[in-house]
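Narrative of accomplishments. A recurring question from our advisory board has been how the design workflow behaves on a single, concrete structure rather than in aggregate. To address it, we present the structure tokens for one chain from the evaluation set, followed by the sequence designed for it. No filtering or post-editing was applied between the two.
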């Protein structure tokens, strides 16, 4: 009895309060987005609002059970949970039915579940367990590769086998945790540059170079890689001489291409590739002769970014689904499809803009009532907030999410063991990724990849997945009191 009382008193009720407020506000907006004149009651369990209320009640029951379970089980059985989830992810495509090209949903009776929503939680547990072991140092390459593999396995299964790119990309949020634990900032900059390179190659891939053959996307991407390489040699290695040699070799390679183009049509995609290979070989010789290990990071940067630059077009057309490619092309301005792939975003922005400062009122949104925005109670529910509650309601929701994420960071910093602290940062990173990407795609700032707004969008899988993620953290935090007195 005393132990149960200490657990209850140790729970962070501020976090629970934020969870309840966001969930209830989401429930109200699900009713507003699915409201019809035939459906007059929010308690009608045959409609989505009534079903969402049931999901919230079951989520609270789930949270109660999680809080009652001994907290050590998550650390002790972390790898077993992770392995079981990997197995479930592998089985899912065999049992799932095709929904918009994705094989990520399985039916259990009358309930449809998406295992990918739960995979994030068990991956976070596995990452926290490995990174909290004695003697772990995130700056050691070997110690960094294992956490990368832990997140890469479910990510690749979800992306390739289940064909659900949106859910897979959420796993990139773990990079923020690695950075918090001491991973070099160059790795994050590497990731940002890779995204920029992807955009450049796709956006200008159809633009021909003015001389010879090839496309502007690969040419500009290759030149950027060369520029970053020279910059790293000057800034990090303080070796201006080698930087000048690499720059001259790159210029010479392109000059040879231009001269050859006088007699034969030269494919400058291959010239760009040759320039990068020459730079990488020169760096390899430098690293071997002078035994400068740090150069290997620059070599790895050149090699991987070269593969990305040369292979992104193939990956774009082979990995992504046709509708996902079209959405990216619309976002980048390659295509103009206001009645097709761009329809959701256009209608969403109209709905948000029409709400103005105070909104049209709950259940009074015309865009919402007339069903102009598809998926408006799931992936695009934020547009319902903008139309019915206006700028005030939208800003209020963002402040609630900000408060929740900052509170979780506060919980992370007060933990007495590394497992709980790292897990807490995983939770904060996943929530931040979901909120940023979901609202970004609704506003037309990011491609539409179809991920829910935490605790807000309609759906049992997402609500249960986020509840599992959050309440395990609350249970670990509640046990902190006992550790203080141990």
């Amino acid at each position: 009895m005393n132990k149960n009382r200490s657990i209850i008193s140790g729970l962070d009720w501020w976090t629970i309060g934020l969870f309840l407020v966001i969930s209830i506000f989401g429930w109200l907006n699900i009713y507003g987005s699915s409201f019809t004149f035939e459906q007059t009651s929010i308690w009608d369990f045959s409609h989505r609002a009534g079903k969402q209320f049931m999901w919230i009640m079951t989520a609270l029951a789930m949270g109660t059970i999680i809080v009652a379970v001994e907290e050590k089980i998550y650390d002790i059985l972390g790898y077993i949970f992770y392995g079981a989830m990997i197995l479930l992810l592998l089985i899912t495509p065999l049992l799932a039915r095709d929904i918009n090209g994705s094989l990520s949903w399985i039916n259990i009776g009358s309930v449809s579940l998406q295992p990918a929503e739960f995979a994030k939680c068990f991956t976070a547990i596995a990452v926290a367990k490995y990174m909290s072991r004695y003697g772990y140092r995130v700056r050691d390459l070997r110690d960094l590769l294992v956490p990368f593999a832990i997140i890469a396995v479910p990510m690749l299964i979800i992306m390739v086998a289940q064909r659900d790119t949106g859910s897979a990309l959420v796993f990139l949020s773990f990079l923020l945790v690695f950075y918090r634990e001491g991973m070099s900032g160059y790795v994050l900059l590497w990731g940002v540059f890779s995204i920029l390179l992807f955009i450049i190659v796709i956006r200008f891939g159809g633009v021909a170079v003015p001389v010879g053959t090839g496309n502007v996307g690969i040419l500009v991407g290759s030149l950027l890689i060369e520029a970053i390489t020279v910059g790293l040699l000057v800034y990090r290695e303080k070796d201006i001489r080698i930087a000048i040699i690499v720059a001259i070799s790159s210029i010479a390679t392109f000059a040879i291409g231009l001269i050859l183009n006088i007699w034969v049509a030269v494919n400058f995609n291959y010239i760009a590739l040759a320039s990068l290979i020459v730079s990488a070989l020169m760096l390899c010789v430098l690293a071997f002769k002078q035994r400068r290990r740090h150069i290997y990071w620059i070599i790895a940067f050149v090699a991987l970014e070269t593969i990305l630059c040369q292979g992104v077009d193939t990956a774009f057309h082979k990995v992504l689904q046709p509708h996902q490619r079209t959405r990216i092309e619309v976002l980048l301005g390659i295509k103009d499809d206001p009645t097709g792939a761009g329809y959701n975003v256009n209608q969403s922005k109209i709905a948000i803009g029409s709400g103005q400062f105070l909104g049209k009122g709950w259940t009074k949104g015309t865009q919402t009532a007339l069903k102009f925005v598809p998926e408006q109670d799931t992936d695009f529910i934020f547009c319902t907030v903008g139309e019915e509650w206006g700028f005030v309601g939208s800003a209020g929701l963002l402040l609630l999410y900000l408060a929740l994420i900052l509170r979780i960071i506060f919980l992370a910093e007060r933990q007495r063991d590394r497992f709980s602290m790292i897990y807490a940062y995983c939770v904060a990173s996943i929530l931040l990724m979901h909120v940023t990407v979901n609202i970004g795609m609704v506003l037309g700032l990011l491609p539409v990849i179809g991920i829910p707004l935490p605790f807000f969008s309609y759906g049992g899988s997402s609500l249960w997945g986020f509840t599992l993620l959050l309440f395990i953290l609350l249970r670990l935090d509640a046990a902190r009191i006992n550790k203080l007195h141990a």
